[in-house]
Design a protein that fits this description.
Number of helices: 6
Radius of gyration: 16 Å
Order of helices and strands: EHEHEHEHEHH
CATH topology: Rossmann fold
Helix content: 25-40%
CATH superfamily: HUPs
Strand order of the largest sheet: 3-2-1-4-5
Number of domains: 1
CATH class: Alpha Beta
Number of strands: 5
Structural class: alpha/beta
Distance between the termini: 44 Å
Largest sheet: 5 strands, parallel
Amino acid sequence: MPPQASKDQRRVALFTGSFDPLTLGHVDLIRRASPLFHRLVVAIGEAQGKSPVFSAAERLAQITAACASLPNVEVERFTGLAVDFARLKGASVLLRGLRSQGDFDYEMQMAQMNSQLYPGIETLFLPTSPQLRHISSSLAKDIAKHGGDAALLVPTAIAAALKQKLQKT
């Protein structure tokens, strides 16, 4: 846990995503990052025009359960720009995971744009653990849709829910 600090000096980070579904890669990143900050807010983006497998309320419950052992992690929903939500939450850091060079290129563009929209916000890139680099939400959905074991990619409870949702379609 970070050292004691006054309330206005506390380091708050924001980790945004759709998390549809939350993967073992996301969980690993959250667990590794949580000791670096006084508060880590996992923020579920609600993008207009997308058709997620899980509702925002379901994802909120799933992520809250997966992070229950991490007392400084909060889970919330948001709409709009991540930097606006970061400002609202008092975050000075945007946390981003990197799996590949492609992720880096995209995330670097976003970091530069975010720093223009919210001067003073920093983006911290945390590389994905090597054994989890292949994991993505899209891959988990595809595996579950075709009857494979998504528990290799997502928490067990989420794998069961994913299988149930996707085998209805």
